[in-house]
Specification:
The protein is about 40% helix and about 25% strand. By secondary structure, the protein is α+β, with helices and mostly antiparallel strands.
Length: about 250
């Protein structure tokens, strides 16, 4: 069994991770904001996974056991906050939108030494103000607890392009589409199409970070055409996959 590391203080720093590199499961006594200035970051907990490109950050509450995975050349920015200070009033991991100003604040704050100066205190105050105003993003892919759903979701994780209907998948796992639909709502809090779209978007972010062409990403992630993929991607992230690849 892998031992879960305990780090009392969540660090505030910048570090680089090579493609495929990982930080094993650990937890902090502090809250942490995790942001990928370059590449794509995946954060995994026992309840699900979150994938964040350069336009998103992930809020990780104090005490949450989590692991990091790098996709592409990752420039990781970490901001630690005391557990007594929860400016976002969030008790679960959450994806936050990161605009140009918030991005520069995070990069500046994590790239300079903590010298307790008034200038750094002001930088921190503006950073927290921008975080409070940051829209929350529904980019969570929950992990099922029900064995039946675990089997079905594992099938789709192995091949996000699998286009079978819920009824067709149900015949493979031995359950009706009505039963599976009910389980998706009660266990995961979303419909089957919503979960599959989240899975495909997460995989798309990973493949784009690996510099795969947009058309190939669309095909491997199960969209019927590149244009259909681009439409869903733009509506979710606010820009096209091509623009994302140039970020």
């Amino acid at each position: 069994m892998t031992q879960i590391r305990h780090e009392p203080v969540a660090p505030t720093r910048t570090q680089s991770l090579a493609p495929g590199a990982a930080i094993d499961a650990h937890h902090h006594d502090d809250h942490q904001i995790v942001y990928a200035g370059r590449g794509v970051l995946a954060v995994t907990t026992s309840t699900g996974s979150w994938v964040a490109p350069g336009t998103r950050a992930i809020w990780v509450p104090a005490g949450t056991v989590h692991a990091h995975q790098a996709h592409g050349e990752l420039e990781l920015h970490l901001v630690g906050l005391p557990a007594t200070e929860n400016p976002l009033a969030l008790e679960t991991p959450t994806v936050l939108a990161v605009g140009p100003l918030l991005r520069e604040l995070i990069v500046a704050y994590t790239s300079t030494q903590d010298d307790n100066s008034p200038e750094r205190a002001r930088l921190r105050a503006v950073l927290l103000d921008q975080l409070r105003a940051s829209p929350k993003q529904p980019l969570h892919l929950p992990t099922p607890a029900t064995p039946l759903l675990q089997t079905l979701c594992d099938i789709l994780r192995a091949d996000p392009a699998d286009s079978r209907t819920l009824a067709e998948l149900g015949r493979e796992v031995g359950a009706s589409d009505r039963t599976l639909s009910r389980l998706f709502r009660s266990d995961l809090g979303m419909t089957f199409p919503q979960w599959r779209t989240q899975l495909r978007l997460q995989q798309a972010l990973v493949l784009l970070a690996e510099n795969m062409p947009v058309t190939a990403v669309a095909h491997l992630c199960g969209w019927s055409s590149a244009s259909a993929f681009i439409d869903v991607f733009r509506s979710t992230f606010g820009h096209t996959p091509g623009a994302h690849s140039r970020c």
